[in-house]
Specification:
There is one protein chain. The protein has a domain of 79 residues: K homology (KH) domain (GMP Synthetase, Chain A, domain 3, 2-Layer Sandwich). Helix content is 30%, strand content 16%. The protein has three helices and three strands, in the order αββααβ. It has a three-stranded mixed beta sheet. β1 and β2 form a beta hairpin.
Length: 115
């Protein structure tokens, strides 16, 4: 018997101790996740993609009793881009972040802070 590891089509180890498929529904890393990590990642990605100065985007997180509150700080020239006409861009960002937070079972609130 060789000491090499053989992989099948699903990249599961078949020699030695077999690794369970990820499709079995067991999440071994559930205890190592940051609360609202998906929502924070989505918010960070979207705001940096919209901003003309992505390095100036700062996302502050406040864990209140009811959920997570995100405060967005951007460069003064980017505030209009984040809010959009009649607040449509800001509302779209809030909706996408709320959906990403619901995936983790967290209520979210997004505020745009004018410095």
């Amino acid at each position: 018997m060789s000491d090499e590891l053989d992989f099948d089509d699903d990249d599961d180890v078949v020699s030695g101790n077999e690794v369970a498929d990820e499709a079995d529904g067991v999440d071994d890393m559930a205890g190592n996740r940051i609360e609202g990590g998906t929502a924070r990642g989505v918010l960070d990605y979207v705001t940096r993609a919209i901003a003309t100065e992505p390095d100036s985007v700062v996302v502050e997180t406040d864990d209140s009793g009811r959920g997570l509150r995100f405060r967005i700080h951007v460069a003064p020239g980017d505030m209009g881009r984040m809010i959009g006409r009649r607040g449509r861009v800001a509302q779209a960002i809030r909706t996408v972040v709320r959906v990403a937070g619901s995936r983790d079972g967290v209520d979210t609130n997004v505020d745009f802070v004018d410095d």
